[in-house]
Amino acid sequence: MPPQRTAKRDVSDKVAPESSNKRRRVDRDATDPLHRPHHFAAEAEENGVVLRKYYPPEMSNARAQAYNDNEIPRPIEKLNAALEATAKTREGIKVRDAVMHWFKADLRVADNRALWEASQKAQAAGVPLICIYIVSPEDFEAHSTAPVRVDFVARTLHELKRDLAALEIPLYIETVEKRNDIPERIVDFMEEWDASHLFANIEYEVDELRREVKMVKLCAERGIAPELFHDTCVVPPGALQTGAGKQYVVYSPWFRSWVAHVHQNPELLVPFDPPAPNPSAAREKLEALFDCEVPDVPEPNRLPEEDAERLHAMWPAGEQAAKDRLEQFCDEKIARYGKRRDFPAEAATSSISAYLAAGTLSARTAVRTARDRNKTKKLDAGVEGITTWISEVAWRDFYKHILAHWPYVCMYKPFRPDYADIEWSYNSAHFQAWCDGRTGFPIVDAAMRQMRSIGWMHNRCRMIVASFLCKDLLLDWRMGERFFMEHLIDGDFASNNGGWGFSSSVGVDPQPYFRIFNPTLQSEKFDPDGEYIRRWVPELAAVEGKAIHDPYYRGAADQAKQAGYPPPVVHHKESRDRALKMYKEGLGRDGP
User: Fold this and answer.
1) Are the C-beta atoms of residues 324 and 360 closer than 8 Å to each other?
2) CA 210 to chain centre
3) Is 258 a catalytic residue?
4) Considering the entire predicted model, what is its pTM?
5) Which of 198, 428, 471, 498 has the fewest CB atoms within 10 Å, i.e. the most exposed one?
6) Over 204-261, what HEC string results?
7) Which residue among 45, 477, 496, 539 is the active-site one?
8) Looking at residue 6, what DSSP letter applies?
9) What's residue 31's pLDDT?
10) Which helix (H) or strand (E) holds 171?
């Protein structure tokens, strides 16, 4: 059975009461389509798509559409409502013995808005700033976080703890076994140290937004003031709208709006200073916090010892390593990024995605650093490589904007609910061949082996292998989405989900479902000499010429077979025809 899928899922959202002409009351009724699972949910669940330990079955198309129609409040709307409802209470809370910052996916000292705001509050009141990070084994499991990423975060925490200690600021790290206990534990900790104000940056996945709602309400009940900030994105979700006042669903016009918004609000790229040092007397008072150790990585998420040394050298942890990698890329490679980025054999990309995902580097810093290498301050003019790279970083904002406004993409649903009626295959042999890099398609196999070896895959190859899984093997795209999260050091839910939606044509993508990559043609175009293939598929190292791209059909079958390389598991043209039929039938199917 394929492994269970990750995502941040819909557990307990309730239908909004009738409070405006934009929302209607939906009665809770056993026959109501809003409260029934999708009609293919059972089959998907039998094949391991749904992690039922934490999440309910796949929701119906009607429920997803209800989010689209503003009939169900979005989690970010609930958070905004909770903040508004508690505003007066929070304003009336006086600073007591300390102010606290809660680190999540923002593991950096510099250019961290909530950390800077917390420091300003502490400095103004003359009290120390303390910081906390919660290790959540259940979140690692629920979100299928890759061991290589958990290891990267753990190593980053060691660096962050040292960086903060140099400023006399303690970082307390604690493991909380039950994810639902995190808000209560944080409030209890604050009461132990008489900390009155909690500062944190907002995350936009559904689980995290619901946790923040719970946190805001609990803090207000216990006399603590939570202060939450937009920091993950350069432009906060909801800030960009079409001329009709709606959210963008296509990247190109969204990006033009994003660029114009940043040009009109240049402060969005102004960095936040590191926190000011605590008073020297704070160390003695907070000694127990300084002395705490970084917990060991939970056993299920522990990186195998034989991989650790190699991967640690390849992915050095910490804020300084992130800055060094960004600066080197901008100095040496960014000018030709636009022309060379699609060739996986070349080291032509920035390789900073792991640092952006963990928050050791802010998107704001990345965009500003690239812009400052340009001959203009405009984000869409000047050196082509720079403008192309900035547009790639902006995709991360785009997909987080999608999460905030269309939360059901965190809930097993494709962005386009009608595409949920496609009847996918769950062929376990095909899925295993794809996972192992033994499909008989060299570019696909090279990419999958790269990811399994180093926890990272070139972006062009991500598109190739995703298209292959969905449109050649006809497998449920959610199986691939989850497998990526299990193995990527840069596994970010929004970007991963958005990429899989793009490749399977079920996401925010204006391209039709009949855009189907031919893996052999992709290989010939982007790895013309077969250098990338030979690096990751050593069985084919001796195959010469164009046969490297398709050895079984280009005269190298005996050579490939003798070396132990498998024949193709499917025929591309036949699979393409089956995929077109499958999509057409799915789109014509009347589901409940």
Assistant:
1) no
2) 17
3) no
4) 0.93
5) 428
6) CCHHHHHHHHHHHHHHHHCCCEEEEECCCCCCCCCCCCCCCCCCCCCHHHHHHHHHHH
7) 477
8) P
9) 62
10) strand 171-175
CB neighbours of residue 392 within 10 Å: 17
How many angstroms separate the CA atoms of 582 and 573, rounded? 14
Q: Of 180, 229, 199, whose CA–CA distance to 79 is shortest?
A: 229
CB-count burial class (<10 Å; 0-12, 13-18, 19+) for 267: exposed
In the three-class reduction of DSSP (H, G, I as helix; E, B as strand; rest coil), residue 348 is classed as: coil
Tokens of 213: 């709602």
Indicate the DSSP class of residue 425. B
Choose, from 138, 191, 392, 524, the residue flagged as catalytic.
392
Report the percent of the chain where pLDDT is more than 70.
Answer: 94
Of the candidates 424, 434, 456, 536, the residue annotated as catalytic is 424
Q: State the Cα–Cα distance between residues 491 and 481, nearest whole angstrom.
A: 10
In the residue annotation, 456 being an active-site residue is answered as: no
Domain ranges of the chain: 78-237, 419-588
Separation between Cα atoms, residue 276 and residue 122, nearest integer Å = 9
pLDDT in tens, 222-274: 999 999 999 999 999 999 999 999 999 999 999 999 999 999 999 999 999 99
395 carries an active-site annotation: yes
Beta-strand runs (E) in 349-480? none
3-state SS of 279-290 is CCCHHHHCHHHH
459 is catalytic: yes
Indicate the burial class of 173 (C-beta count within 10 angstroms; 0-12, 13-18, 19 or more): buried
For helices 459-467 and 442-454, angle between their N-to-C axes, nearest 10 degrees: 120
Note the CATH architecture for domain 419-588: Orthogonal Bundle (1.10)
Burial environment of residue 590 by CB neighbours within 10 A (0 to 12, 13 to 18, 19 or more): exposed
Question: Within a 13 Å sphere around the CA of 111, how many CA atoms are in the beta-carbon half?
Answer: 24
Q: Which tokens is 354 given?
A: 């792991």
Catalytic residue among 389, 395, 434, 456: 395
Distances (CA, A) of 366 to 111, 369, 401, 487, 547: 11, 5, 18, 24, 40
Which candidate, 92, 94, 91, 281, places its Cα nearest to that of 194? 94
Among 254, 315, 500, 536, the active-site one is 500
The distance in angstroms from the start CA to the end CA of the chain is: 27
Fold type of domain 78-237: Rossmann fold (3.40.50)
**Per annotation, catalytic residue among 68, 70, 459, 518:** 459
